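Q: What residues go here?
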């Protein structure tokens, strides 16, 4: 049950294809098949079964894949912690962020952090909230920037920053806005802002026309083009508000206060705390836990 076999099995689980797993891992298809067969033999249960031209995990394989991801994530986290223990400024930091945070909050932070600590090995994963929290749970990310973490997640909130969600629209649409009839543009329910917008309308028992778009940028562009109102982070539309392409609509119950959270696992690595210390020097961020206070007071250099 080697790390290589676990990684091969997880890649096969993600792709559903021996050929694609081999391509991603730069190995032969026979090497992928052999690794998964060896794991199944050791566990004494089948892990995959043929389905059409691809493969599908068996119930045992689905359960085992979740554990395998956590084992691999812990190994990566352990390597990062070991490399950063003596010199946090030369360690590894695996960040994960929801799209709005990645677009609007992280760029300046990452640029200034890179200038200050050029030898830190940075990796950034961007995705919907379900994906980034799953990455943290599986130890595939050291730090997540997103909204409030799920209550069932074993995690440590290290810092917070205010974030207001406002309803915006093109000026002409805003002038005739009504909550129950004006069309809305929004993300899909799997995204944080999409789910919040759906819940906002449901709580007010209204069902206006809705146009679901695939990215925050598309939602903002759609709102600016007059396709509908949108519930978005004020951080994401600052330029549009400044030049008049969008205006804030005085919708009931808004703005919604949804702070950004910087969240790590139960035992943040030294390099993670180095980044949090840097983050706490940025405008608006405040410490939210003992580890964050430690990061701020022990920041190297």
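A:
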């Amino acid at each position: 049950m080697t790390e290589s076999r676990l990684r091969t099995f997880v890649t096969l689980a993600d792709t559903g294809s021996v050929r694609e797993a081999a391509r991603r891992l730069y190995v032969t298809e026979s090497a992928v098949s052999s690794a998964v067969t060896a794991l199944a033999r050791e566990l004494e249960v089948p892990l995959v079964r043929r389905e059409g031209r691809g493969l599908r995990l068996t119930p045992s394989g689905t359960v085992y894949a979740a554990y395998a991801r956590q084992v691999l994530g812990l190994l990566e986290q352990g390597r990062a912690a070991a490399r950063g223990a003596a010199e946090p400024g030369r360690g590894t930091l695996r960040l994960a962020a929801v799209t709005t945070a990645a677009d609007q909050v992280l760029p300046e932070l990452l640029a200034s952090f890179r200038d200050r600590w050029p030898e830190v090995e940075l990796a950034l994963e961007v995705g919907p909230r379900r994906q980034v929290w799953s990455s943290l749970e599986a130890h595939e990310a050291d730090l997540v920037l997103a909204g409030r973490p799920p209550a069932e997640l074993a995690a440590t909130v290290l810092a917070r920053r205010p974030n207001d969600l406002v309803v915006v629209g093109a000026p002409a649409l805003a002038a005739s806005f009504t909550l129950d009839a004006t069309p809305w543009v929004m993300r899909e329910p799997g995204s944080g802002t999409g789910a919040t917008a759906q819940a906002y309308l449901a709580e007010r028992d209204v069902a206006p026309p809705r146009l679901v778009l695939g990215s925050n940028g598309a939602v903002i562009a759609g709102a600016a083009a007059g396709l509908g109102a949108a519930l978005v982070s004020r951080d994401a539309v600052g330029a549009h508000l400044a030049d008049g392409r969008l205006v804030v609509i005085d919708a009931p119950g808004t703005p919604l206060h949804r702070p950004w959270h910087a969240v790590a696992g139960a035992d943040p690595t030294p390099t993670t705390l180095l980044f949090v210390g840097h983050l706490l020097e940025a405008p608006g961020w405040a410490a939210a836990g003992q580890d964050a206070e430690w990061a701020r007071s022990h920041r190297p250099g």
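A: Context that may help when evaluating the design: The first strand starts at residue 48 and ends at 51. The two ends are 42 Å apart (CA to CA).
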